[in-house]
Design goal:
The complex is a heterodimer. Chain A is an alpha/beta fold. Chain A folds into two domains: 91 residues, no CATH class; 104 residues, Glutaredoxin, CATH 3.40.30. Helices cover 36% and strands 15% of the residues of chain A. Chain A has a six-stranded mixed beta sheet. In chain A, α2 runs parallel beside α4. Chain B is α+β, with helices and mostly antiparallel strands. Chain B has one domain. Chain B has two helices and four strands, in the order αβαβββ. In chain B, strands 3-4 form a two-stranded antiparallel ribbon. Chain B is flat, with a radius of gyration of 25 Å. Classes of the chains: A alpha/beta, B alpha+beta. The interface between A and B is large, with 96 and 44 residues.
């Protein structure tokens, strides 16, 4: 997918009127079934990427879905279309950009990988009980849905300490961890730990984000060294994108 | 000797100034990004609650099996 569309400032601004959902293909049976109900390519099966604009019920499409935003000539046209669509939804007109929960992923390993893909820090909430975790996430939400911090972290939540094993530098069993993912997203280093949420958290997170050195990746170099290291991400369900399967077989010498 | 002292003072002043500038970096330096829900259940729940339309994207967080890249 052409990610330049999703990084375009006009598209980012328009996205504040939408609920933005980014799923990891092949990581959940039920999400894969849902994605197939939205779009399948020529192969008739789920492909690596999907793009769609949808009604709030998540069923009716508001533009032609596809592997990417190819129904639009440019990122500007996509942003304009999103602005037009948003006018029909009162929820989009709300001046208050404040969701009640942070957009947490429920698998730390997957969130670490996604954070590496995005070159973003990972913020993990952890607690010993579901109730403590719920309260922590609710308190955190008040600090991360603002124009400065929205989109600057990938989020995960867990009460399973084993999920934190790939992380170096963690000393707390509960609270908020700010993690710098390794390049391949299979390890990470804890940069900050917060015991809980207080009124200074937004400012501290903003300071952290502002001081992060920019990260970039060279795609072919990343793949080259990843293959040399023998890395092979195991998906939850089998991959079904013929192009991707063929390319992987060619590269790794599999049938 | 005097030139060296002046150079040192200038260098120190630049160092102090650049530190101050770094400490006061404005938030506007951060490039705005889309805030993504990472699971279908939480995203659909929020869309139903807030009555906002949905921007849906899916991608595999690995390329040729190598993680850390879309």
């Amino acid at each position: 997918m052409d990610r330049s569309f999703l990084l375009n400032p006009k598209v980012v601004a328009a996205s504040r009127q939408f609920v933005c959902i980014r799923l990891s293909t092949y990581e959940s049976e039920s999400e894969a079934e849902y994605l197939k109900s939205i779009y399948v390519g020529r192969s008739g099966d789920l492909e690596n990427t999907t793009f769609a604009l949808l009604e709030p019920n998540g069923r009716k499409t508001l533009s032609r879905p596809g592997r990417g935003p190819y129904a639009f000539r440019s990122a500007s046209q996509l942003a304009d279309q999103m602005d037009t669509i948003a006018k029909d939804y009162p929820g989009s007109q709300s001046a208050k950009y404040q969701d009640p929960q942070p957009p947490v992923m429920d698998r730390v390993d997957l969130a670490l990988n996604v954070a590496a893909c995005e070159n973003l820090p990972l913020l993990i909430t952890c607690a010993e009980t579901d109730e403590d975790l719920k309260q922590l996430n609710q308190a955190l939400a008040a600090h991360v849905w603002n124009d400065d911090l929205a989109g600057q972290f990938v989020f995960a939540t867990t009460r399973n300490q084993a999920d934190l094993k790939p992380l170096n530098g963690s000393t707390k069993n509960s609270g908020i961890l700010v993690v710098d993912p390794g390049p391949y997203g299979i390890t990470g280093r804890v940069q900050h730990e917060f015991a809980g949420v207080d009124e200074t958290l937004s400012a501290k997170l903003l300071q952290f984000v502002t001081r992060l050195p920019p990260k970039t990746k060279d795609r072919s170099e990343h793949r080259h060294y990843g293959l040399q290291l023998g890395l092979d991400w195991e998906t939850v369900i089998p991959e079904t994108d013929p192009r991707s399967i063929r390319a992987k077989a060619r590269t790794r010498g599999r049938d | 000797m005097r030139v060296r002292s002046i150079s040192l003072i200038v260098f120190a002043a630049i160092a102090v100034l650049s530190t101050a500038i770094t400490a006061a970096e404005p938030a506007s330096k951060i490039s705005p990004k889309i805030a993504w829900y990472g699971t279908l259940a939480t995203g659909l729940e929020e869309a139903a609650r807030s009555k906002r339309p949905i921007l849906l994207v899916a991608a595999a967080p690995h390329c040729l099996g190598v993680p850390g890249i879309w």
